[in-house]
Design goal:
Length: 138
């Protein structure tokens, strides 16, 4: 998690503290939150923190990468990185710069795609839930 200050395992209490401190900045206005099966994220303290924030916290159904819009972003980044790949050896610093530029490129040129991926979540959730977690056309 980007907000952890110390290395180590996250606990239910530490996750709850993060929700209370950062939720409105992270995802204020999101109608619900989904987590994988990590037990620390679904304990009493995190559930209470999400309830206090006014948002239900759900578990992703098994085998449901369709509920993760970041997959769409990775695809766009892969396309851009392939298009800008050098012919020969690339030093680490140059690669890092190329990745950063690819992220900027996606943000500048695909804002509608990014918004649509997030906006499609209710529909994706319905399709995945009705399919009991099976693969979807997404």
């Amino acid at each position: 998690m980007a907000f952890l200050r110390k290395a180590g395992k996250i606990s239910g209490e530490s996750h709850a503290a993060l929700v209370r401190q950062y939720y409105s900045t992270w995802a204020g206005g999101c109608p619900c939150v989904f987590h994988d099966g990590e037990r620390a994220l679904h304990g009493a303290a995190p559930k209470a923190a999400y309830l206090q924030a006014g948002v239900p916290c759900n578990t992703l159904p098994p085998y449901s990468p369709d509920l993760n819009p970041i997959e769409n972003v990775w695809a766009l980044l892969d396309i851009r990185l392939a298009a800008t790949a050098p012919k020969g050896f690339e030093r680490e610093k140059a690669f890092r710069r190329r990745v950063r530029n690819a992220v900027y490129w996606v943000n500048r040129n695909h804002q509608k795609t990014l918004r649509n991926a997030v906006a499609s979540m209710p529909r994706r959730l319905e399709v995945v839930t009705s399919g009991k977690g099976a693969m979807t056309p997404y």
